[in-house]
Amino acid sequence: STGVGELEIADLALNYGGVVRALNGVNLSLPAGSVVALLGPNGAGKTSLLRAVSGNLRHHRASVKGEIRYAGTSLVGLGPAETVRRGVVQVPEGRRIFASLTVEENLTLGGQALRSQQDFQSAQERVFELFPVLAERRKQPGGLLSGGEQQMLAIGRAMMASPSVLMLDEPSLGLAPKMIATIADIIRSINAMGTSILLIEQNATMALALAHHAYVLGLGRVVLSGATSDPGLMGEVRRLYLGDT
Ligand code: ATP
């Protein structure tokens, strides 16, 4: 299920506990087959936006208003399992792999929506092609992998569901430059297979190198957005975000 359509977010607002207003009228679109970067300082609302889309809000006493549409239907109010079935999958910040489970068992958790053993096998083969190191280490506990390999496992687990939209929350966090380049290549290959990507990054250089469109969030609002091919926009993003003059 690839390239099914555009993810459209309109006038999205999100409150925690009726108090903290994390998102305040956000409009964003992720065209089919594209990479969109979501930038902005800590606390801007990037993770909250991903949670609203993926339905991972159960433990956050959050209320969502506005619209999130994908492939002709609304995703608002759906739980994570149903959202995954619609082809929209989040790789959480901090990876959240299970350290005591093997690589293979971690992948199994991502493939729970797959109906047949055959679907499962072919999903796993695709993940092992994308990440040969995971194939080599399939019987080892996830906790023995390096930080970069754990990030690969987290992405691999999400890819088990064959998403048409993959949302990544700071995949470069804590990784060495060489590993960041490897992760960037992997994101590029996943996108080349037809999967749309919504990428949160503090590493704006990496994100902008991958993205077709960029949004900068500040205090729950979009403060800048546009195509990364637009030199004017990129100049503004760099001034605002990378401290260039
Ligand atoms: P970071 O990179 O630090 O994760 P972010 O841009 O992803 O930043 P969010 O994590 O979405 O920002 O946070 C937006 C606002 O919502 C912040 O003020 C944050 O403190 C608050 N917030 C996030 N999660 C919760 C929660 N579970 N309960 C209450 N407030 C929260």
From TrEMBL:
SMART domains: AAA. Pfam families: ABC_tran (PF00005). GO terms for molecular function: ATP binding; ATP hydrolysis activity; branched-chain amino acid transmembrane transporter activity. Residues 7-244 form the ABC transporter domain. It comes from the Bacteria. GO terms for biological process: L-amino acid transport. Keywords: Amino-acid transport, ATP-binding, Nucleotide-binding, Transport. Belongs to the ABC transporter superfamily. This is Amino acid/amide ABC transporter ATP-binding protein 2, HAAT family.
